[in-house]
Specification:
single chain, alpha/beta, 8-stranded mixed β-sheet
């Protein structure tokens, strides 16, 4: 059992807080924002994540998880302190480390008077050099102690996917520990005792880069798949999934994360790739591959518009239904959802747009107020001239032609390649990628 303090009770902090508590550790999750802390302390998650609500209540019942707004006090009592605060994007794509620096200062204050050796681990996604250049000085200034000698300092990136975040935290596919020195790595190890996953110990900068490299590569895979889908459409008569299946049999490639669609969204991929490009630029390196990955991702939602226009002509005055508003199925998150540029492009063309999502309706309304939100699937499709399927909620896979019978038109654009073609008799299906 380790006494753990999590600083920042957002997506990452809460999921790890719950996971660490259920693994038998004593966890205090601290956040300067009193509102979410009060909600969480009552056992209600502040966002949708499958299984989290139950797991949070279970962790609270064990009394091994608690919440506080006192970051200084909580970090002073912990053996391992995880910094899980947000690193928002600036307009130029670079990341703002203001919250991280403030959190590190509070933690430094907290560990000032402690006697034992505690370890501070950065879980926030930060560019190489940030932990040593910003977090360490902040910790040392307020604690009056030296990193490595008096307290441990590590970078311990997270690889949580929304929708399976809890599982990813409990059974990670790898544990990467970037350590300031050997003693820091040793101090963090007990937290992951009992977790059977491959481990890699590196220096701080390498661990910081591993996180970006992972997300940049996965985003590149998605953009590659999307480019392939567009090429399949240009050649005609080729199904991109069959191509990916054939490619994926090459063990050097593997077929995962090559599902074509309308682009990648979410809180990580777009932000992290932009930050890496901006970070390279600031250091005199102009990215080529990653800039192209982002460029294609910006254009990809327009492919659904093109397919719709090809089928029904100009969209002005037409009613277009978008199924799926969150950035991916299984999530209520609309951050960087490709449904946002998709809806805006449709509105710009003079279409009226109605959207429906099993979880993300109100968040999407706030993001694009001009979109009408339907209370259910049937109302979204009623009188629609065209329907565009944007994300991959499992319920779309169950759809049959009869579900679309209330539409005025008969064109359905499958932007996620999720509908079962055999079940769509009588529907004019336009599938991205053949
Ligand atoms: C991602 C990483 O997977 C995770 O390791 C990291 O910690 C945070 O970012 P997440 O944002 O939850 O997780 O979503 P993910 O499932 O990776 O999908 C990202 C985007 O790519 C989504 O918009 C998804 O629809 C899209 N995608 C993914 C595809 O278009 N095709 C694919 O084959 C896979």
């Amino acid at each position: 059992m380790t006494r753990i303090c999590i600083v920042g009770a957002g997506h990452v902090g809460l999921v790890y807080g719950v996971a660490f508590a259920l693994a038998g550790n004593e966890v205090v999750a601290a956040d300067v924002d009193a509102k979410p802390i009060a909600t969480l302390a009552k056992g209600t998650p502040t966002f949708f994540e499958p299984g989290l609500s139950k797991a949070l209540r279970r962790a609270l019942r064990t009394k091994r998880l608690s919440f506080t707004t006192n970051v200084v006090g909580a970090s002073g009592k912990a053996k391992a302190i995880f910094l899980c605060v947000g690193t928002p994007s600036r307009p130029d794509g670079s990341i703002d480390t203001m919250y991280l620096e403030a959190a590190a200062k509070s933690v430094g204050e907290g560990i000032r008077a402690t006697k034992g050796y505690s370890v501070v681990a950065v879980k926030s996604t930060v560019l190489p050099g940030t932990t040593d250049g910003i977090v360490r000085p902040a910790l040392e200034a307020t604690s009056g102690k030296a990193a490595g000698r008096d307290f441990g300092l590590c970078v311990n990136p997270e690889f949580l996917r929304e929708g399976s975040a809890l599982e990813d935290a409990i059974k990670p596919d790898r544990i990467v520990i970037g350590a300031f020195n050997r003693r820091s790595a040793t101090a963090l190890a007990p937290v992951y005792r009992g977790v059977r996953s491959p481990r890699l110990t590196t220096d701080l900068r390498t661990a910081e880069m591993i996180k970006y490299a992972t997300n940049a590569f996965l985003a590149t895979k998605v953009s590659f798949a999307n480019e392939l889908a567009n090429l399949c459409d240009a050649f005609g008569g080729i199904n991109v999934d069959a191509v990916v299946e054939g490619m994926g049999l090459d063990p050097r490639i593997n077929p995962r994360f090559l599902k074509a669609g309308l682009g990648f969204g979410g809180s990580c991929f777009p932000k992290d790739v932009r930050a890496l490009v901006a970070g390279g630029r600031a250091r005199g390196y102009g990215s080529r591959v990653l800039r192209a990955v982002l460029e294609l991702n910006d254009l990809q939602p327009l492919r659904a518009v093109e397919l719709a226009e090809k089928a029904v002509g100009p969209l002005a005055g037409k009613r277009v239904a978008i199924l799926g508003l969150s950035f991916k199925g299984g999530s209520d998150d609309v951050r960087e959802s490709r449904a946002i540029p998709l809806a805006k492009a449709l509105l710009e063309r003079g279409a009226s747009v109605v959207g429906y999502d099993p979880e993300a309706n109100s968040a999407f309304k706030a993001a694009v107020p001009a979109v009408e939100i339907a209370p259910d699937l049937a109302s979204a499709l009623a009188r629609a001239d065209v329907c565009i399927v944007h994300n991959d909620w499992p319920q779309w896979r169950a759809l049959k032609a009869s579900h679309f019978s209330g539409m005025r038109g008969d064109v359905v654009v499958d932007g996620r390649r999720i509908l079962r073609r055999g079940a769509m008799k009588g529907v004019r299906l336009e599938v991205l990628g053949g």
